[in-house]
Amino acid sequence: MTSTAEPWVDAARAAALLAIDPAGLGGATLRAPPGPVRDAWLALLRGLLPPATPWRRLPPGIADSRLLGGLDLAATLQSGRPVAERGLLAEADGGLLLLAMAERLALGTAARLAAALDTGEVAAERDGLTLRAPARITLIALDEGIGPDESPPAALLDRLALRLDLTPIPPSATTALTPTAGQIIAARALLPRILAGPDVLEALCATAAALGIDSLRPPLLALRLARAAAALAGREAVAEEDAALAARLVLGPRATQAPAAPEPEAPPPPPETAEDQPPQPSPEQMGEILLAAVEAAIPAGLLDQLRLAPARTRTPGTSGTRRASPLRGRPIGSRPGELRGGARLALVDTLRAAAPWQRLRGGGSPRLRIAREDIRIRRFQQRSETATLFLVDASGSAALHRLAEAKGAVELLLAECYVRRDRVALLAFRGTGAELLLPPTHSLVRARRSLAALPGGGGTPIASALDGALALADAIQRRGQTPLLVLLTDGRANIARDGRPGRERAMAEALEAARALRAARIAALLVDTSPRPQEAGRSLAAALGGRYIPLPYADAAAISRAVRQG
Q1: Where are the annotated segments for Disordered (predicted)?
Q2: Less CB within 10 Å around the terminal CB: N or C of the chain?
């Protein structure tokens, strides 16, 4: 049975190695809720770093002017000339940056942090200034996500050597023995002299490839960690146990597949070695040792999942659509403009624009002079969650023609909706009316089950189906969401609203219902499921004001792309 102290020993060892080579390893991701275990790890790391090491906290919603630097407004107004202000990255040079709620970090901010980690400096051109300053930072990303879909941006995860999960560690285990500050100082002095042979890097690269790691950074980060481990042990060359530790801490958490079982081979003859020197493993043998070390550190359940299905590497999307708004929403900066129509003044940005010109405008006067071109208006961004309504023709003609292929197209569309965190609803029509099989939901499993159980046969009541889609779309809009209609049909309506057969009347009512959806500004896509493109489908798409795609000329993947573009 594994001791509860062993995970903490690994976490403490990782903190020690990070303290030995903080800039080289980039940092660490801590997956743990706020609590005594996370606080104990951060306190340990802080105690192992030099006392004068800068320690800064970075909120996830930080503005670029504070992160990168910009115009010092107070000093600029006082002097009448542009005065630069250092940003948070420059302030943390040579120290540690603590990123709270890393799973909520904006992608733009993640890109700026990644650039600082790559170059060791911060460069920006803003507010009429060109800023460049050293920013050799070590980033600690605090990941408080609940599920696997909530994680820091991939650009940061790829650049941070360590990924530590502290959730299974009880607070009582944090009292285990850890390296001392004196050992860290000695290891830091020894680190530049540590040698690593090419066989070590070759074995680490082979291990990364066997684990399905497709980035070149992890093997290099593992090599740096192996050198730090050798320095901590007092060795001047990387040993087998140092490489195994690096593979376990750096490569193991990044595994996306289980390593394939090696094919049995005849053992090679043992090399001739001196009696006083033990034989060194070959790169192939070392690679097998590193894989064994990594497999021993990965939970058995995870290995089973990796063997059954390779892990998805796609980054989850965000839900809904975003649109700029001058009045409300999340602030996204400012723009030049005029104060009319309820627009809100961005006071600080206005002062920033006016400050450099005060000496020219005032002639020494203490009064602040603001011109029309200095006015800056606040910009906001509103998010509206999208609900995709799948309206599937399950009538006899559709079942005869392309119902199975239409189901395949909906399967792909459902997956795309899941990635974007859209809600999905499924309506089917056949016989004399339409039926709501699945109300708007985030559950992809429920949608797939409803789709699989969808039978075929009967008449084609398109008008009733579109009426039901309009009512559902109206309810979705009242909840503040944006509906998107995807209609899969051959367009050959033959059942009127009252349930009576008659193709001419049914088509007229279907076009009338389609025009009502267009008047309600419901975005729509019609997928023609007939064997050959029919005029009925084109006419219905035109009445909807939506895009028309004939299924014979567009497979399921093409339909998926069309929905994303629409």
Answers
A1: 255-284, 308-339
A2: N
CA dihedral 115, 118, 121, 124 (to 10 degrees): -20
- Quick: pLDDT tens for 195-219: 888 888 888 888 888 888 888 899 9
- Dist CA 444 CA 357 (whole Å): 58
Helices marked H in 420-453: 444-452
Give 181-243 as a DSSP string.
Answer: HHHHHHHHHHGGG-B--HHHHHHHHHHHHHTT---SHHHHHHHHHHHHHHHHTT-SB--HHHH
φ/ψ of 313, rounded to 5, equals -105, 0
172 CB-side CA count, 13 A? 2
Answer whether 0.70 is exceeded by the pTM: no
What's the rounded Cα separation, in Å, for the pair 351 and 353? 5
Sign of CA dihedral 269, 271, 273, 278: negative
Tokens of 466: 């579109």
The two three-digit tokens of residue 453, written as one number: 């159980």
- Say which residue the tokens 């058995």 belong to: 300
Helix (H, G, I), strand (E, B) or coil at 110: helix
96, 22 contact by CB (below 8 A): yes
What is the mean predicted confidence (pLDDT) over 385-397?
77
Return the number of other C-beta atoms located less than 10 Å from residue 13's C-beta: 16
User: Is 464 within 8 Å of 503 (Cβ atoms)?
Assistant: no
